[in-house]
Design a protein that fits this description.
Elements: E1 3-6, H1 8-12, H2 22-34, E2 39-45, H3 57-63, E3 71-76, H4 79-87, E4 92-98, H5 101-108, H6 112-129, E5 133-138, H7 151-164, E6 168-173, H8 180-193, E7 199-203, H9 210-219, E8 224-227, H10 247-256, H11 265-279, H12 287-290
Parallel strand pairs: 1-8, 2-3, 3-4, 4-5, 5-6, 6-7
Length: 303
């Protein structure tokens, strides 16, 4: 079973020029749940002036359907965000730490080492109260400002996160520059250092390598993959971002490969149509345009 973590309500919407009302965000999350999503990054607790699309995080969490088996994740960038996430009763938190100095300062106005120390403190505090905390290492495959990233630095940050109490470590191709060779190197090195810590991967399709990277990760035994309905989104601080890998495109690929996800393809396609209408443009995902195969929905099944 591949655990597809739905990130369209957060990473998807944060980079869109159209600011959706709270009700539309709640409807997107409702549709994701209806499709079978069980881990959803619903909101981020960031400064409204920095990321206006996330200004209504608490209102979104107040409006979403709460049901057994569905875990809502709140992204936090600092201690203030962590406090807000706790107060809003998220099921999990995800702390993002860029591994390069320049991106850290452009994205979060602090140095990478300072942000890693903050993440260690948040992870430890969350562990003490039993709140699951994952740490996502941003620009792990390449930085728009510094270029290539040393894999040893990524692994070192991952080890620190796990030792501090993070229950999951994610590697993110924030600007969509990664290729399968890098996936093999980073996953292999992290597994060697953290054999008991689950890994998650987060790919953007900016240079059309996201799905190749995802299948490489699956071949290596990674079972947790971020994806976004419609393929929308990206980091506002990543130049020329063109979107995440699309949940429906990824699910089609996995199902055709004989792998289960627990997600229903038609419901995902319908959700992508909803997003296209809400955003006033065609979403990047290809499956809603081409349809499934063979037949219209022969492989759209629950796991």
């Amino acid at each position: 079973m591949i655990d597809v973590v739905e990130v369209s309500p957060r990473d998807g919407l944060q980079n869109e020029s159209v600011l959706l009302p709270t009700a539309a965000k709640v409807e997107l999350i409702r549709r994701a749940v209806a499709a079978g999503a069980r881990r959803i990054e619903a909101v981020s607790f960031v400064r409204p002036d920095a990321v206006p699309a996330m200004a209504d995080a608490e209102a979104v969490l107040d409006g979403i359907p709460r049901s057994d088996g569905v875990s809502y994740i709140g992204l936090v960038l600092n201690q203030r965000g962590y406090a807000r996430a706790q107060a809003a009763s998220v099921d999990e938190i995800n702390v993002v730490v860029p591994v390069t100095e320049t991106f850290s300062r452009r994205n979060q106005n602090a140095g990478a080492e300072d942000l890693m120390a903050m993440a260690e403190e948040v992870a430890a505090n969350a562990a003490r109260i039993g709140l699951p905390c994952s740490v996502t290492l941003a620009v792990a495959f390449g930085c728009p400002f510094e270029g290539e990233v040393d894999p040893e630095r990524v692994v070192a940050f991952g080890v620190r996160a796990a030792r501090a109490g993070a229950v999951e470590v994610a590697i993110a191709d924030t600007v969509g520059v990664g290729v399968p060779m890098q996936v093999r190197r980073l996953v292999g090195d992290l597994r060697a250092e953290l054999p008991a810590t689950p890994l998650r991967v987060h790919f953007h399709n900016t240079r059309n390598t996201g799905y190749a990277n995802a299948t490489t990760a699956v071949d290596l035994g990674v079972t947790r993959i971020d994806a976004s309905i419609g393929g929308i989104g990206g980091c506002p601080f990543a130049p020329k971002a063109t979107g995440n890998i699309a949940t429906e495109d990824l699910v089609y690929l996995l199902h055709r490969s004989g792998l289960e996800t627990g997600l229903d393809l038609q419901t995902l396609i319908d959700a992508a149509g909803f997003l296209s209408d809400a955003l006033g443009k065609q979403v990047p995902a290809l499956l809603p345009r081409a349809g499934s195969f063979p037949g219209s929905l022969a492989l759209s099944h629950h796991g």
